[in-house]
Amino acid sequence: MERLDKFLCDSGVGTRSQVKVILKSGRVTVDGKPEKDPGKKIDPEKQTVCLDGERLGGMRRVVLMLNKPAGFVTATEDPVEKTVMELIPQEWKHLDVKPVGRLDKATEGLLLFTNDGDLLHRLISPKKEVPKVYYARHEGHADQADVEAFAAGLTLRDGTKCLPAKLEPIGPGESLVTVCEGKYHQVRRMMASREMTVLYLERRQEGSLTLGNLPRGQVRELTEAEIAELEPA
Ligand code: URA
Which of 36, 139, 198, 230 sits at a 20 to 30 Å CA gap from 190? Predict the structure, then answer.
């Protein structure tokens, strides 16, 4: 159960004070009956709330960016491990956000969350995967033959074929890897197929979105413009 005014705010109807005015004007109905009390307790799962006769979905759509630290698994629940959900502040957790794709427990960096199921599926769809840029510290050195093998599309040790990807050596035992798909342990397995063991992995970019100066372990909400840029046309 939640307060009607909070439900209306979370549905994107307006600010707390705008919602107050809207309620006073009698434009809101709960289960078909006009309701003016901002403190009225409602159950959005079971009750129908309408503004000017239009049903409200309840939850405001949000997309969040987490700078994931190592040591957290990407799951909504886990009986043993700490999950990334523990890093989401309550103000967003109650909006029922879920991780978009996954990062390994040891991997750090950019991880998105959303409560928009359609957007989530579009973002992880193999047809629309946006390029993701990883920084990898690894054993061995990447050379031109490795760069060419990545560009041609690697075959992993278990025979899995990968889409063409970009490998940019940036120093001894350090590379940037750009991939457009999200197979299990993808970057680690790609590097392993070229005899380079990944020691540290951080996702730095997804489409045009970068971590910016978001501190490790912190979360911020994306703007509508950033969300629009995330979705390839
Ligand atoms: N590739 C990996 O190997 N691990 C990740 O967490 C992400 C990409």
Answer: 230
